[in-house]
Amino acid sequence: MSQRKVPPPAFWEIQRKQKVISALLFIVLFIFYFLSTGVISAAILFSADLFIPGFSFLAASFFKPYVVILISVSFILTLINFISARKKGSLYILKNLRACTPDPEDRYHLTFLNILEEMKISSGIPVIRGYIIPTVNLNSLSLIDRDGKPAIVITEGLLGEASRDELQAVVAHETAHILSDDTFLLTLVCSIASFYEKLIDSLEKERDLSEDMLKRPDKGTSPVQPLVYLAGIFSCAILKLFITFLSQKREMLADATAVELGRDPMALARIIYKAHLANSFLGESNLFTPLFLVPPDSREIKETIWDKLFNTHPPLTIRLKNLAAMAHRELKDVIDGVRKQEENREKLRLKYTPVDDLPTEYGEKLKKLQLQARVALEKDRVWFVRESGGAWNGPYLLGELITLPFFTPALRVKNLKENLEGPARSFPQVRFALYRQLKKQPIDPNLKNRCPFCLTDLDESFYEGVKIKKCSGCRGKLVSFNHLEKIFARKELSFSERLRQKALNYKEALLKTDLKIPVVKEKPPALCPECGLQFTLRPFNYFYLMPVYKCYNCQLIWFEDEELEILQLLVEEKIRSWYRQNPIE
Ligand SMILES: [Zn+2]
Ligand SMILES: [Zn+2]
Q1: How far is the CA of 524 from the centre of ligand 2 (A)?
Q2: Distance in Å, CA 458 to ligand 1 centroid
Q3: Are 150 and 298 in the same domain?
Q4: Rounded distance, CA 558 to CA 330, Å?
Q5: How many whole angstroms from 502 Cα to the centroid of ligand 1?
Q6: Ligand nearest 536 Cα, by number?
């Protein structure tokens, strides 16, 4: 049975009109593109005029055939470029935004996929694909994939922050763009604009390069480049104006259509408001801004005539007031709604208890466990390495030995247990380990999937909907590099006051130190439970310099108890500060 709601006729009327306008815009775009291709090739020929002696562009014998050739060449080029922009444009945009396909095993991603399914039924669009951008920033967009299928792209930040009805409203808004062909036109225009941007970029790079390489003042650059460059900049500017003209009215219309589809104007208003408050920045290029739910510079857009004319999106307050009016509400109801929701969410959070807050017996038991593990590992720490001076260095575990930066199979090593000495490759253990490393298997099968500090078997577990491995003994966590943004975007756990204070102290300590020197707490070496190679101890990232165990081989980070929680607290604190810095109105 179809669940399709029958919208009022006025709605279809607007849509039909939009389709006509879209078709007209498409033709205008084609003609413009055709002309600009002409301008660029004319620029090339005209400059030939300047530096080939005896050749004249304007000579009658040349001019006529030239025009014919120019028109046909431009036409063919336009066609080719349109087709390739259609095919490659979306791929370029998705790559630029680092978008990836949702993971059905992830609870949040699954909700998104389910909402897409529902939207397919209520909108009548047979396929709507979903993509996710791994960033804590809040935004969404729609585009037409390379095979012509529409797709909706949202950020982890939005997934983490939106309630189900808000997520539905966002999907409805993007579906509205797809229905009215905005998505088709905008993807095309943005792809073409990105072609010009790349052209300008490559010319700039070429110029820099030639300036660097030949610093001879007598040799000027050829006149072709500046002309093509100017033509490129001109085309790019015109396209940007075109995009602006195309996108602003349609943004309001998409809000209205989203309400037709989702019947919840307040939910849409709330999530737009949240995205406005948070950071909605996406990717380096500002070319794709018209595709976004909220422009990255949303907070700078005011209700002035200038901003109304020259921005891809209407000012926030106008958008919110319109949506609130649809629910017979006011702007302040939207703002109150967001605040109340945040308060409720705080109450619903699950409390995280670090080891230090557990009963003392637990800590005692853990200490014993860790000591046992150390003793067990110590027994295998039997490898020594001959230094260049002749002294023996060690002892190392096998995993530590072959991770040494200067390790080669020819390195002179000594095995203390067997009391043998020779090149590393003469030891069957080393050969076996190297073979297993090559086969992407753990170097020491005995240590596979066991905690590097207490040797407890690691459990598969979920942390805020993210699949991780966890040690039930010391509570260390093994997390994939790719999953960190998800954890930072989600707010299911709450942390004790003690932990909060610890995070704040940590941040203060960071501010006081010279940022170039990471705050290093002495940490012993440890082996990755996946591959068995030694972890590298590195600052978490450029902003949060906490040293953590990283395995670049498996793209994994080992967090000791409290570390991930402290990082999460700090990131959340930063997100909270965005909210505070941007008071409403
Ligand atoms: Zn452990
Ligand atoms: Zn590893």
Answers
A1: 17
A2: 8
A3: yes
A4: 48
A5: 22
A6: 2
Domain that holds residue 457: 452-581
379 and 420 share a domain?
yes
> DSSP secondary-structure letter at 527?
B
34 and 76 housed in the same domain: yes
CA distance 240 to 310: 10
CA of 572 to the centre of ligand 1 (A): 26
Name the closest ligand to CA 403: 2
The CA 579 to ligand 2 mean position distance, Å, reads: 38
Task: Report which bound ligand comes closest to the CA of 473.
Answer: 1
pTM exceeding the 0.70 threshold for the entire prediction: yes
Please tell me the distance between residue 508's alpha carbon and the centre of ligand 1 in angstroms: 29
Kindly give, in sequence order, each residue whose CB lies less than 8 Å from that of residue 492, ignoring residues fewer than 6 positions away: 349, 350, 464, 465
Token digits for 353? 């208890």
Distance 554 CA to ligand 1 centre (A): 19
Which residue type occupies 318? I
What the block records as the tokens of 544 is 């949060």
Q: How far is the CA of 442 from the centre of ligand 2 (A)?
A: 8
Say how many Å lie between the CA of residue 369 and the centre of ligand 1: 9
Q: Which amino acid is at 89?
A: G
Would you write out the chain's pLDDT as a tens digit for each of its 585 residues?
344 444 444 445 555 666 676 677 677 777 777 777 777 777 776 666 666 666 565 566 666 777 777 778 777 877 777 777 777 788 888 888 889 999 998 999 999 999 999 999 988 889 999 999 999 889 999 988 888 899 999 999 999 999 999 999 999 999 998 888 888 887 887 777 777 777 777 777 766 666 555 554 444 445 456 666 776 777 777 777 777 776 777 888 888 888 888 889 999 999 999 888 887 777 666 667 777 888 876 666 666 666 666 677 878 888 899 899 999 999 899 989 988 988 888 888 888 877 777 888 888 888 999 999 989 888 889 999 988 788 888 799 999 999 998 899 999 999 988 889 999 999 999 999 999 988 888 888 889 999 999 999 999 999 998 999 999 999 999 999 989 999 999 988 888 888 888 888 888 877 776 654 554 557 888 999 999 999 998 888 877 888 899 999 999 999 998 899 999 998 888 877 776 665 554
CA of 555 to the centre of ligand 2 (A): 7
Contact (CB, 8 A) for 271 and 162: yes
**Which of residues 423, 446, 469 is at a domain's end?**
446
Say whether 167 sits in a helix, a strand or coil: helix
